[in-house]
Design a protein that fits this description.
124 residues, alpha+beta, Alpha-Beta Plaits, 4 strands
């Protein structure tokens, strides 16, 4: 239990530290667009998939969310990718809080830290 809590705090710290460095500007470029690659513990893949499939439509209803797509690697069934887009940093904070309210504890599923990549939206 202690190990899971420590991992949960590390994941949260990692996400906060990376996302807090973003400085949005006015207009469409203020959107925060990123991918999050999550490696799931062996044996937890189906539970994670089922849990998150139920969560995705709820996240899409968040006021600051513009995109939230869940994918699974064809080569590695433990690797999931989320394409996410939010109007600003405050929307990301609201998203994190919403996940907590929904009872999502990523630490129970993650095998290592998420890999985040940020993008500048050029066209849509």
């Amino acid at each position: 239990m202690h190990k899971r809590r420590v991992l949960s705090l590390l994941v949260l710290f990692f996400l906060v530290s990376v996302l807090s460095r973003l400085t949005p500007v006015a207009g469409e470029n203020s959107l925060v667009t990123f991918t999050a690659k999550l490696t799931i513990k062996t044996g937890k893949e189906q539970e994670f998939e089922t849990t998150m499939k139920a969560i995705v439509p709820q996240v899409r209803q968040e006021p600051g969310n513009r995109a939230y797509t869940m994918c699974r690697s064809k080569e590695n069934p433990r690797l999931f990718l989320f394409f996410e887009e939010y109007v600003d940093q405050a929307a990301i904070e609201a998203h994190r809080q919403h996940l907590k309210e929904l009872g999502v504890d990523l630490a129970t599923f993650l095998d290592g830290a998420p890999v985040l990549e940020f993008y500048e939206k050029l066209a849509s």
